[in-house]
Amino acid sequence: MKSWRAWIEPSLAVLIALGCAVLVLVLLGANPARALVALAGGAFGDRLALENTVVRMMPLALIGLGVSLAFRCGVWNIGGEGQLYLGALAATALGTRLLPDAPAAILIPVLLAGGALAGALWAGIAALLKTQRGVSEVLSTILLNFVAVLAVAWAVHGPLQELAGSYPQSDLLPEAGRLGIPPGLLRIHGGVVLVLLLPFAVWLLLFRSAVGLRLRAVGASPDAARYAGVSPEREVVRALLLSGGLAGLAGAIEIAGVTGRLFENLSPGYGFTAIAVSLLARLHPLGVLPAALFFAALASGSGAMQRVAGVPSVTVQVIEAIVIFLSVGFALAGRRS
Amino acid sequence: MPRVALRDIHKRFGSTEALRGANLELAPGEIHAVLGENGAGKSTLVRALYGLVRPDRGEILIDGVPREISTPRRALELGIGLVHQHFMLVPALTVAENLLLGEPLPAFLRRAELRARAREILELYDLGLDPDAPADSLAVAERQRLEIVRALARGVGVLILDEPTAVLAPSEAAALLSLLPRLRERGTTVLFISHKLAEITAVCDRVTVLRAGRSVATRPVAGLAAAELGRWMVGEALPPPGSPPAMAAGAPALRLQDLRVPGLGGIDLELRAGEVLAIAGIDGNGQGPLEEVLAGVLPIGSGTLEVLRPPLAVLSGDRQRTGLVLDLSIGENLALSEAAGAGRERLYRYGFLRSSELQRVARESIARFEIRGAPDLQARALSGGNQQKLCVARALGGEPRVLVAVNPTRGLDVAATAAVREELRERARAGAAVLLISTDLDEVLELGTRVCVLFRGRLTAVEPERRTRERIGELMLGLGGA
Ligand SMILES: Nc1ncnc2c1ncn2[C@@H]1O[C@H](COP(=O)(O)OP(=O)(O)OP(=O)(O)O)[C@@H](O)[C@H]1O
Ligand SMILES: [Mg+2]
């Protein structure tokens, strides 16, 4: 695999998709230049837009990182959405019910670790089903998404519902549990530090550690890995736990950094878009950052495009779909040549 | 006019020049051998003819007409078929379905019709295959016959066989070799790649030698002795075969007692330090389960398996499926056993890779086993023989005191075969215990301090005073009575 292909092909996928979007816009009778400028403006135009984009990018990058890691071990984690919800649920329970009076230095690490652990355990169910019963993780992780969303709905109507009001939402996290805003040009919560560091950590893990070599060996050839003394089952469990942990962490960060409380429909499908992020990144841990930024920009710019240019925001979904198809297509073509 | 002519073919993969001016002419109805060291470019050349590799330069003429062969489909249209060095059947499909795959067939084909057509083709060539058997239930030799039949069924007039005998037992190889003249009688032109000189002198009409991507000469085979052919290919006289390590009374290193798994019925065996115990036998008589149980991937049914002098390493008999992870680099393949927790920490410290150390170890193995590739090259990009060398390097890299080697020289060229056999003898002399499981009688006789035969899952020792090809051949067929 030549290294330039790793950059050229995703860029090409994005360009072609934007080209197709122009075509769609023309067919809709809109002015494509105006619409795309509005889209870019909505995503990057001013400080507020940029902050909005970066905040959306964070869960996409973390979950996409986990999806890539699992893919490298030959495991399809389609359950990022559910793991995110479970992570958010755990963080909320810890912050509002179990440790409401803890100081920030304790509460924030506990919230993040608790969210990651919950996501990992949720993915662990799929891992157990796969290794013990041979259930495909594609199915189990998808189905666990529904269960997780329902679990959150039940929690905000029941045990975690706010004590004062009657809305189906939790209480606000105590101030000590909220992620602060580090000094800088943008006012974005401190989760950004993790989002920028973890891709490097995962890269180190995958390509410079014994664990990573085992994971990738299992992903490429379970038979040969087993011969070399690796237990494919154990690596599959490990990959799913790590992958779920990253998604759970994303959920905890959403609560502690963005919303401050738990409610239904917390995520606009981050867990699903993250799969596209991982494909566009060609499963590369560092590629996840630009790929997540791209999808986040589409999401945050689409509203502006609709307002300014009068184009339905579904045009953005056309772009997303084409990028996904092309990413998969390039990956398959790369395999054959 | 030559049936097929390849002129001045060049092909470069990244920084490796696989072909640098290769010429090959096949006369109509001849059996033409291509001979050359591992990595000389034999597979690349025939893959170019079959449309799997696009040459950078050079031309291909079929019946005198220059042709662009861009896909296997095009090659088949032009009457050229290839049976790969590594198999390419669809395992879940049946023999009949595999046979008819890729045939122009009516859209809705009834199963009965499908089977009838398959049966017709199978009977025409008298090859005894059950059309309803799933391809993954076939033995290696049967799969290969299926691939040959599949090519012939499509009306192929030029049949390319890339190291077909490397995976066959001697009797099966003999059967295949006897098929070739029959094909020639029916007008088929055969291109035959092999590292076994005796096979070439036995059935081929002409031979072309490839050296480092260039064709050096083409000669008629008649009157050429195998030794002469070898000298001509390697450029010097071949070393005489070595003799097995002497009977040693070393400490027991590996002991199996009444070991049973599906396919093996009660194996008793004691392997001692300093000896090579060679197990001969036709593939399918329990070699697979024996290898897997020793590699620890198949649970023991009953009985015991004791490794008395660890570590134990297994040199797998299937380099592409279990021996190597083809998508990983040479270096990563070498590091995998250690990453899996075997042996002392050398390449990893606190679980993290010491890149420079891995580069050094990989370079050392590459130089020592003459692997054509760099540490970061994907194992998939190596030629078949070089993949085999990497398997050998990996098994020996951990300095095992018990080594299980399954067909260790399969697919290696003459010089590399001699080198690997010498390496195994050397290890035994240095105190390792070697268990050789091989379908190659020459190898068994050349290496085995003691020789056993595996037949239908049972082990029979060959009496030292009756250690002959004939006697071992008898036992391999289960005729060992007296
Ligand atoms: N897809 C590829 N990518 C990179 N290098 C390749 C590729 N295919 C072949 N090569 C290189 O080209 C050279 C010739 O390989 P080829 O497979 O033709 O050898 P061969 O003569 O068939 O050897 P063997 O006897 O071992 O099968 C080797 O050095 C090999 O590593
Ligand atoms: Mg070859």
Task: Please tell me about this protein's structure.
The complex is a heterodimer of chains A (337) and B (482). Chain A has 337 residues and is mainly α. Chain A has a single domain, classed as ABC transporter involved in vitamin B12 uptake, BtuC (Orthogonal Bundle). Helices cover 75% and strands 0% of the residues of chain A. In chain A, helix 3 (47-72) runs parallel beside helix 7 (191-208) and helix 4 runs parallel beside helix 6 (137-157). The longest helix of chain A is centred in the middle third of the chain and has 30 residues, at 104-133. Chain B has 482 residues and is α/β, with parallel strands linked by helices. Chain B has three domains: 4-234, P-loop containing nucleotide triphosphate hydrolases (Rossmann fold, 3-Layer(aba) Sandwich); 240-311 and 400-482, P-loop containing nucleotide triphosphate hydrolases (Rossmann fold); 320-398, no CATH class. Chain B has 16 helices and 21 strands. A six-stranded mixed β-sheet of chain B has the order 6-7-8-3-9-10, sandwiched between helices. Chain B has a six-stranded mixed β-sheet with strand order 15-18-19-13-20-21, with helices on both faces. In chain B, strands 2-1-4-5 form a four-stranded antiparallel β-sheet, covered by helices on one side. In chain B, helix 7 packs across helix 8, helix 11 crosses helix 12 (355-368) and helix 11 (330-339) packs parallel to helix 13. Chain B is globular and about 65 Å long. The mean pLDDT of chain B is 88. The chains are: A mainly alpha (337), B alpha/beta (482). Magnesium ion binds at residues 42-43, 85, 162, 383-384 of chain B.
